[in-house]
């Protein structure tokens, strides 16, 4: 860095784009450089990707607070850093207008305080993974859905506290959505899933495993369009309906009609489906790559 100014200018961005955060001495060095008063470059503005998941459970608020000056982070991955709270995460996202992807899987102490800050600042957000974050409520998800209009990937796996209010708002405002995971959202009911599928025609992957309140209406109520006939979700490739016990043959038939290019269909523990559903599935032909019908006891050798 001290030999050639031109070389330094050309290389510093590459060196700081994704700083190594997999060892404590690396983290200490990064934080020291950022806090240094007489530094050669504004290192905090060069950090685009920040991933502390390698150290996971060892990372605390004190570890993350030193990165609060990094306001141009585009991808923030804190998977299973379970000691982190709003105290360090909220200041980090506050003022960040560049964030595209946020993964806080397993951070069960993070609350709406941080998520509201995300909604107010991170308007370019495309991916959000809050798997297992049990203190995040409908209030902040609604705010994010309304403000962050570029959402493409959402994972709410295990967030059983979320309700139709969140999903309805996502459906109304996130029309470019590609993937959504609602695994274990036991409060979600059929109308919100109907709205989601109707409003988000580009969906490629939908995971609804253990959404126990879903019925046939989630799919049979899908509207038909006046000009082109029944709604068609040509982009949908993966649909997981594991343990949606109230789904029956009518739902499966409508799914096949609506999603003709499904590759992966998971109906394990959907105990109401019969041979009639399997016959409908055969219409997928060569498009179908994987099917799971485990514990569907009403299916016979027919």
From TrEMBL:
It holds the Pfam family DUF7885. SUPFAM superfamilies: RNI-like. Residues 49-150, 161-294 form the F-box/LRR-repeat protein 15-like leucin rich repeat domain. It comes from the Eukaryota. GO terms for biological process: SCF-dependent proteasomal ubiquitin-dependent protein catabolic process. GO terms for cellular component: SCF ubiquitin ligase complex. Signal peptide: none annotated. InterPro entries: FBXL15_LRR, Leu-rich_rpt_Cys-con_subtyp, LRR_dom_sf. Gene3D superfamilies: Ribonuclease Inhibitor (3.80.10.10). This is F-box/LRR-repeat protein 15-like leucin rich repeat domain-containing protein. It comes from Hortaea werneckii (Black yeast).
